[in-house]
Amino acid sequence: MTSTCNVTFGEPHPTFYFDVGSPYAYLTAERIDAVLPGPVTWQPISLGGLFKANGRSSWALAGSEPRGAGIAEVERRARAYGLPPVRWPEPWPSNYLFAMRALTFAFARGFGREFALAAFRAGFVAGRDLAVPEHVLDAAADAGLDRQEVADATADSDVKLALRNATDAAHARGVIGVPTVAVEGRLFFGDDRLGEAAASVGV
Questions:
Q1: Which of 39, 72, 116, 191 has the fewest Cβ atoms within 10 Å of its own Cβ atom?
Q2: How far apart are CA 89 and CA 21, in angstroms?
């Protein structure tokens, strides 16, 4: 499975838009290799930046009832998929800008997919707050990256711009949230549409 960082619309492979703060993106990341045929482009974007551009917000901030229902649904799906029990970071959601800049750098270095999975599992299996730089750098090290190099990269103007451009491109394409999988010009938003996205490949 090929992992690259690409913000163009005419990509030859399906594109998986994600932010490591999203539990539904975690569920998608754990399944996408098995469900989608062929290589997939993993594209990190800033969900906070996307929400700002779309004038939307997270369901987790919509009040206790929708938050509780969403949490229960994530946990139910994790069990159904045979994944480990979800452990929720405290607090959640949080600010994942550092993490997404680190991931943007990692994809440019060829370690993005491994780092993304390590970060997702740190957040939703180990229950670590990915707003804490040390937790992000632990995941980077688990993926084979140098902690200091990753930390330095998060302050690099080119890395910041790359993440901003990727988020702006996703918004321009019509992405309203994560996870979204783009297949040949069609957008499939939500973990529950992964099978539909797979069925559309090559159609």
A1: 72
A2: 10
The answer to whether position 2 is within a domain reads: no
Range of the domain at 145: 15-200
Number of domains in the chain: 1
pTM over 0.85: yes
Note the pLDDT of residue 5: 39
- Per-residue confidence (pLDDT) for residue 203, from 0 to 100: 58
What integer pLDDT is reported at residue 12 of this predicted model? 72
* Nearest-angstrom CA–CA distance, 51 and 47: 6
Q: What is the CATH number for 53?
A: 3.40.30.10
Q: Give the model's pLDDT for residue 159.
A: 98
pLDDT bracket for residue 11 (50, 70, 90): low
Q: Which two tokens stand for residue 13?
A: 């492979």
Please answer whether residues 191 and 72 qualify as being in contact, where contact means their C-beta atoms are separated by less than 8 angstroms.
no
Closest-CA residue to 149 (of 166, 157, 137): 137
What's the sign of the alpha-carbon dihedral 152, 157, 162, 165?
positive
Q: How far is it, in rounded angstroms, from Cα 137 to Cα 96?
A: 13
Distance CA 78, CA 157 (A): 37
Give me 164's structure tokens.
């901003």
Please report which residue ranges of 42-145 form alpha helices under DSSP H.
Answer: 47-54, 64-80, 97-109, 112-124, 133-142
Mean pLDDT calculated for residue range 162-166: 98
